[in-house]
Amino acid sequence: MTDQDTLGKYEGAGKSADAAKVFADGRRSGLATAALAVGVVSFLSMLGVEKAALAVVLGVLAIRGAAPGSSARRLGMVAVLLGGLFVVTLIVLLAVFRNEFAELLRSLHRLS
User: Fold this and answer.
1) How far apart are CA 46 and CA 44, in angstroms?
2) Sign of the alpha-carbon dihedral angle for 73, 76, 80, 82
3) I need a labelling partner for 111 at 20 to 30 A (CA). Which of 9, 17, 50, 101 fits?
4) What's the burial of 28, exposed, middle or buried (CB within 10 Å: 0-12/13-18/19+)?
């Protein structure tokens, strides 16, 4: 649902365009906050790439259509940066410690 759809829904129900804008801004702010939380949590468990990807997706959704300089846009950008930073960090660590990681996988395979 786009902001124009939301605006039309509110205006059709007799509510003002300001209410629709506040609703859309609140939704973006909520997405940005969720994206930031997931981005931070992705660093708490190793190999949390799915959480980093979710942070990037939610961050992009929050940024899209947000007013320049708004808190939703800033939080969304931070979430995208955190998610990207996690993925880059994980790739670098796997590249640097590839032999140790391969040995760990072999040891885990022998245990199973």
Assistant:
1) 7
2) positive
3) 50
4) buried
Mind listing the pLDDT tens digit for each residue in 82-94?
A: 999 988 998 999 9
Separation CA 97–CA 16 (nearest Å): 58
Write the pLDDT tens digit of every residue in 92-107. 999 999 999 899 999 9
- Integer Cα distance of 30 and 62 in angstroms: 8
C-alpha span between 6 and 102 (Å, rounded): 51
Between 10 and 92, name the one with better pLDDT: 92
HSE toward the beta carbon, residue 35, CA cutoff 13 A: 30
